[in-house]
């Protein structure tokens, strides 16, 4: 099976593949010999598929596959797979890091020390922050990653609210200690809101200006999911006004970050690092390769995804 890959993926599993060719940017001409594409973040649409008439599989490195037109693939009989499960812990860990950094003003404090501004005793009130322990945490999307965040957050004795399309069974809610609330109610009630939903036609711009306006003064919004779930211009306005805080790992037009955010003390910025640990990235390669090998052997694909 001939694989066209947008890069060499990290870890030993990648070396199990033999017939791999690499491409950069977008495809420029027909490649009828290609059976499978291995991609991360590259757009795969009808035009891509026209260049690859014998394609059987698009294997996405990552759990989110919003850059792939799954409906166009399905229409041409091309399967799509992703790499779920193995990145939940790393993404949940980063979410907790952003919650802590945002609430406890860690990055601001680090800059303060480096700038030589620490001229008083520790009892100064300059960098007083907000507690994480005992806060109300609102989780938007209690899938694998949202649940991993919920389990970690319980260690901070938070009141846990969640929202998603289908409410959990009572026993599951009890087990997690999570209360269901419709999205707008959750936004009004939470001190910290964290997003863990995929980017789809339905969720794009879900957290719009009106909904951002529902957040409490001083609330923190954390996003390790996808930037375009939030109306980024409206978010920038709220942050410039200084009314809320944010911990942002994802942006609407990566790698571009709105210029205004770069100077703000109430925002912690990271460059889409949710899955960025050595262990997790190698585990993602393992899953990617397993899907490619299954396709090559004509076996059932371990992680197929479908158009929503
Ligand atoms: C994914 O897998 O979609 C993540 O965004 C990578 O961290």
Structure characterization notes:
The strands form two sheets. A seven-stranded parallel beta sheet has the order 8-7-6-9-10-11-12, with helices on both faces. By secondary structure, it is of the alpha/beta class. The longest helix has 20 residues, at 278-297. The protein is globular and about 65 Å long. It contains ten helices and twelve strands. It starts with a strand and ends in an 11-residue tail after the last helix. Helix 3 crosses helix 5. Helices cover 31% and strands 15% of the residues. The site of (2R)-2,3-dihydroxypropanoic acid has 6 residues, from loops.
Write the layout of secondary structure elements.
Layout: E1 3-5, E2 20-22, E3 36-39, H1 46-51, E4 57-60, H2 70-75, E5 79-81, H3 88-103, H4 106-114, E6 136-140, H5 144-153, E7 159-163, H6 170-176, E8 178-180, H7 183-189, E9 192-195, H8 209-212, E10 220-223, H9 232-241, E11 245-248, E12 267-269, H10 278-297
Parallel strand pairs: 1-2, 1-3, 3-4, 4-5, 6-7, 6-9, 7-8, 9-10, 10-11, 11-12
Helix pairs in contact: 3-5
This protein binds (2R)-2,3-dihydroxypropanoic acid (DGY).
Residues 62-64, 87, 274-275 line the site of (2R)-2,3-dihydroxypropanoic acid.
Instruction: Provide mean pLDDT, rounded.
Output: 97
The outline comes out as globular
Bound molecules: (2R)-2,3-dihydroxypropanoic acid
In total, how many beta strands? 12
Largest sheet: 7 strands, parallel
SSE-based structural type:
alpha/beta
Estimate percent helicity.
Answer: 25-40%
* Secondary-structure element order, N to C: EEEHEHEHHEHEHEHEHEHEEH
Task: Tell me the span between the first and last alpha carbons.
Answer: 28 Å
Number of helices: 10
Taking all Cα atoms into account, the compactness measure Rg is: 21 Å
Low-confidence stretches: none
Major beta sheet, strand line-up: 8-7-6-9-10-11-12
Beta-strand percentage range:
5-15%
